[in-house]
Structure formats: structure tokens, C-alpha cells
Amino acid sequence: MTVQEMLSHVDHTQLKAFATWEDIKNLCGEALQFHTASVCIPSCYVKRVRENFGPNINICTVVGFPLGYCNTEAKVAETVKALEDGCDEIDMVINISDVKNGDYHKVTEEIKTLKKACGDHILKVIIETCYLTREEKIAMCKSVTEAGADYIKTSTGFGTGGATVEDVKLMKENIGPDVKIKAAGGVSTLEDLETFLNLGCDRIGTSRAVGLCKGETTGGY
Fold first, then answer.
1. Which residues, 6 or more positions from 94, have their beta carbon under 8 angstroms from its beta carbon?
2. What confidence tens digit (pLDDT) does each residue in 114-133 have?
3. What is the pTM of this model?
4. Annotated catalytic residue 100
5. Alpha-carbon span 184 to 178, nearest angstrom
6. In terms of residue numbers, what domain contains 153?
7. Number of domains observed in the structure of the chain
8. Catalytic annotation present for 182
């Protein structure tokens, strides 16, 4: 797999709380130069990116991020506003408390509601695997599939752990045929990138991939 093939699956990410407009502009410039799948940015910058970069860039933002425990109505409002501002893809965080309470049906219904709000736009569902048991991860694979979301995503990158080979394999075994996988959090080398793509991930969320291609050795998410 060539470096460019790998980059075409990357959601080039900048989600730090202190991200500046200069940071976001640089991110978008790199995404256009290296032909990444998208930029994943805070929702407060979506409209500005669309106005400055036009239709040439695929914009992803996050909803209910990073903890997921705001109510469904708030997540819907975030989603609707992001789409109005020009966003193309939504990465939502599930309510992990609902999972821990065993209320899997509630999680499924929330994902359904967000998918309805997204319409034809892509919805990725972050289940934050570092906080879940194996049983809960399998249950979330079923919830994401039943709710009709486009992707299941491992992590926010802000939890206690990120994507692992074991979790991706588990997802692959338990999602439906129409659900794709996004690995995020801790993808820090080109070898990691290739490993997750070879495992069957369609997207990788990372801030490091472009920097690695430019010879940089440090990064973030």
C-alpha cells in the first residue's frame, strides 16, 4: 500500500481545545496537498472552513464530544447546525453511561435519531472502546448496525486508550455488512496506519499521518 493510498483514508484531525484558526488553516492546506479523506475539526470552525476552502475539502466534525453524555436533543441541535454550516460528515459520541446501565436500546435509538438528522451525510459512531467490556463492545456493534449508521469508530482520542488491533478485529466480526470501521486514537506511525487499514478499517482518525509523511516524529491525536 502506497503512502498516498493510506492518506486517502485519513481524517486529518485537529480537535484540541486550544486549536487556533491558523492551526485549522494549516490542517486544511495539508489535507488538500496530501489528498486526505477529510479534515476533522471543531464545529465552531466548520462555516469558516467552508467559506474559505469551498467545496474542495471534505469537512468532518464531532458531536457530543468527547464525553457523550449530553442529551439526544443537544446532539441533534449540534448536528443540524454543523450541516447548515457546510459540514459533510458527523462523528458522534454515544452515551457511555447508557451502555454501562445496560440500556442498549436507548443507545440504538439515539444513533437512529442522529442518522435521521444526518440524512445522506455520513454518520460515524464513536463507542470509546477503552471504557467498555467485550460484551458491551459487541452490543455497540449491534446497536450501530441496527441504527443504520455508516461507521463505527473506536475512540475519541481523549479517553484512557485508543484503537487496538483486538478491538478492530472484534468489530469486524460483529458489525453488519453495511457498516465501516474507523480507528482513532494512538495511530502514531505509518506502520500503525497500514496495520489498521489491512485489518479492514476504511478510515483512520489521526493528526499525525501527514506529519509523518513530511518526516516529523511528533504529533497528537
1. 64, 68, 107, 110, 111, 125, 126, 127, 128, 140, 143
2. 999 999 999 999 999 999 99
3. 0.96
4. no
5. 20
6. 3-213
7. 1
8. yes
Would you call 116 a catalytic residue per the annotation?
Answer: no
Assign 55 a pLDDT band (cuts: 50, 70, 90): very high
Length of the chain: 221
The one catalytic residue in 91, 150, 167, 192 is 91
What pLDDT score was predicted for residue 142?
98
> Given a cut of 80, is residue 219 above it in pLDDT?
no
The answer to whether residue 114 sits within a structural domain is yes
Structural domain includes residue 152: yes
Give 55: exposed, middle or buried? Use CB within 10 Å, 0-12, 13-18, 19+. exposed
Q: Each residue of 133-154: pLDDT tens digit?
A: 999 999 999 999 999 999 999 9
Distance CA 193, CA 187 (A): 6
Catalytic residue among 75, 115, 124, 182: 182
- For residues 145-171, give the mean pLDDT: 98
Per the domain annotation, does 221 fall within a domain? Answer: no
> Does 219 map to a domain?
no
Q: Which of 75, 124, 137, 153 is catalytic?
A: 153
**CATH code of 199's domain:** 3.20.20.70
